[in-house]
Each structure stands twice: as structure tokens, then as C-alpha cells.
């Protein structure tokens, strides 16, 4: 991965995967909004089960785990490109020592191998060729991300400080993704965890592009203290922009499904006034407490 394409390609793949997941997350969100009753509060944990892959909503492809198959073949292609180009498959030299130029390729191939295992497990589960607890798919994908982070962690020895700092933020995101997937395995009815997982994978994709631009772009950054300090600022910008993207997406879906309402949330308003009554009562302000009646502050 020590090149622009070596970082841009996985960045593109992670962005492609997370964008596909994001579209399905928004589809699920819209479905939940449509199914909830008009008088009840929005409960995103009801009638929802997290999954590591999504089907294509088509009669022809809905009976095939297309996403898992694509992940399997793309990861296999990644291994082929890593090992069978420029004699990169040679791991041990004639003198018995490791071929240093091939170690990176084998590390990347190991990473792809775990994603192949995850995709294969999804396919076997889909076709009932393997019966495992449903959490198995989440744990397999979590382990794939964990190994990716582990390989990046030990990949930075002896690198320039700027290079290390850029990749450190990357493996932090990767480890966080692995951790969220473990939580999903045991709390599969949590819509929020699914959103966080997709957000982190999307962040991983954009940060891969940032690394490609910073280290191998037309004007590579110099390893200077100001550039090192700016890395954290750039990372925070990536996080913030993606948060706004998600916010806009959810607002658009909500407006599309429910329409644009300017009326405040009644349940939230009542809870706020209940808290006000309790605080006023505990403060000994009986007059103030008596003025807050049935969710309305009559003092004003």
C-alpha cells in the first residue's frame, strides 16, 4: 500500500461498501417511520435486526447474497494483485531470510483473507450450508477489522512521524469499527450501533484518501511539526463533514416520509416540564412548583 493507488483503492472500496450500507440504513429508517403509529414515540429498536450485509431489493437478485459474493471476489482479487505481481509471492529468500519487499504484500493479503472468510461465512449462512448463531457473522466481520487494525499497528515501525500519525488515526477508526461490531453482535436490535458502524467504515474510506493525498499526492506533505499538528485537525474535519452528511440524509428521509412539521415534540416538552416541577419542589419553591401545571408554565 506504499503508493497513492495502494491507499486510494481500499479507500474507494470502503467508501463503496459504506455507501451501499448507508442507502440501506436510510431505507430501514424510512420503513420504521412509516410503520410507527401516529401517536407513539419513534422507537428505532422495535422490529429491527442488524445484519452485516444487505440484499438487493429486486426479484431477480433478492435470493442471492450479492453483497457477500462481491466482497468475496474483490478480496480474492486483492490477494491476487498483492502476491502475483512482480514476484511478490516470494516470502523467503534462498539464504533463509524473509524478503522484506514481500512482507507488506503478505500483510495485506492476510487482511483480505479475513474479509474473504467473513464473506464466505455470510454465503454459507444464507444457503443454510452452515448453521451458526446469527452473531457469528458480526463476530467474523469484527475480527476482520481487528486484524486490519493490528496489521496497521505493527506496520508503522521506523516510519516518519507524519506517516505514523496519519496511519495511527486510521487504525484507531478500524479498531473502533471492530468494537462496534462486537456490540452489534449482542445488541442486534440497536439501530444506532448500525449507524455508527457504517459511519466509521465511511470515515475509514475518506481517511484512506487523505493519506493517499498527504503522502503520495502531487504535493506530498513534508514531515514538519505544523503538518503533524494539522493531521488531527484534518481528521476532525472528516468526522464533522460526515456527521453533517448523515444529519442531512436523515432529515431528508424524515421530511420525505413524515412531511415537514414545526410542532415541537410533545413527549419531550412534557418531560421537560416534569423535570422543572421536580427541581422547583426540591428547591422549596412551592409557589413556582404550583405554577407549573400539566406541562405548562403559567407564570408567564
From TrEMBL:
Keyword Aminoacyl-tRNA synthetase: no
Membrane-spanning ranges: 12-30, 69-92, 112-132, 139-156, 168-186, 198-218, 230-253
GO cellular component, one term: membrane
Primary localization: membrane
Keywords recorded for this protein, A-Z: Membrane, Transmembrane, Transmembrane helix
Membrane topology (UniProt): Multi-pass membrane protein
Key word Lipid biosynthesis present: no
Domain of life, per lineage: Eukaryota
Pfam families referenced in this protein's UniProt entry, alphabetically: DUF716
Subcellular location: Membrane
Recorded family membership: Belongs to the TMEM45 family.
PANTHER family (UniProt xref): EPIDIDYMAL MEMBRANE PROTEIN E9-RELATED, TRANSMEMBRANE PROTEIN 45B
Protein name: Transmembrane protein 45B-like
Organism: Actinia tenebrosa
Amino acid at each position: 500500500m506504499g503508493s497513492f493507488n495502494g491507499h486510494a483503492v481500499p479507500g474507494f472500496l470502503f467508501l463503496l461498501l459504506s455507501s451501499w450500507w448507508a442507502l440501506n440504513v436510510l431505507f430501514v429508517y424510512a420503513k420504521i417511520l412509516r410503520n410507527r403509529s401516529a401517536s407513539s414515540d419513534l422507537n428505532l429498536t422495535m422490529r429491527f435486526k442488524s445484519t452485516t450485509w444487505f440484499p438487493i431489493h429486486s426479484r431477480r437478485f433478492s435470493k442471492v447474497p450479492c453483497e457477500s459474493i462481491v466482497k468475496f471476489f474483490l478480496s480474492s482479487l486483492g490477494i491476487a494483485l498483492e502476491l502475483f505481481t512482480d514476484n511478490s509471492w516470494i516470502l523467503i529468500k534462498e539464504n533463509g531470510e524473509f524478503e522484506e519487499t514481500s512482507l507488506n504484500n503478505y500483510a495485506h493479503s492476510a487482511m483480505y483473507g479475513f474479509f474473504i472468510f467473513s464473506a464466505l461465512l455470510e454465503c454459507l449462512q444464507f444457503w443454510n450450508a452452515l448453521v451458526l448463531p446469527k452473531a457469528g457473522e458480526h463476530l467474523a466481520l469484527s475480527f476482520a477489522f481487528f486484524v486490519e487494525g493490528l496489521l496497521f499497528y505493527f506496520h508503522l515501525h521506523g516510519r516518519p512521524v507524519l506517516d505514523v500519525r496519519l496511519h495511527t488515526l486510521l487504525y484507531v477508526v478500524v479498531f473502533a469499527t471492530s468494537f462496534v461490531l462486537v456490540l452489534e453482535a449482542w445488541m442486534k436490535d440497536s439501530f444506532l450501533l448500525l449507524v455508527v458502524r457504517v459511519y466509521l467504515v465511511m470515515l475509514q474510506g475518506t481517511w484512506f484518501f487523505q493519506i493517499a493525498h498527504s503522502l503520495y499526492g502531487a504535493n506530498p506533505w513534508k514531515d514538519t511539526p505544523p503538518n503533524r499538528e494539522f493531521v488531527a485537525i484534518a481528521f476532525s474535519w472528516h468526522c464533522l463533514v460526515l456527521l453533517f452528511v448523515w444529519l442531512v440524509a436523515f432529515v431528508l428521509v424524515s421530511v420525505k416520509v413524515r412531511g415537514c412539521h414545526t410542532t415541537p415534540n410533545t413527549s419531550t416538552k412534557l418531560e421537560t416540564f416534569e423535570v422543572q416541577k421536580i427541581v422547583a419542589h426540591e428547591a422549596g419553591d412551592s409557589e413556582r412548583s404550583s405554577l407549573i401545571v400539566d406541562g405548562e408554565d403559567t407564570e408567564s
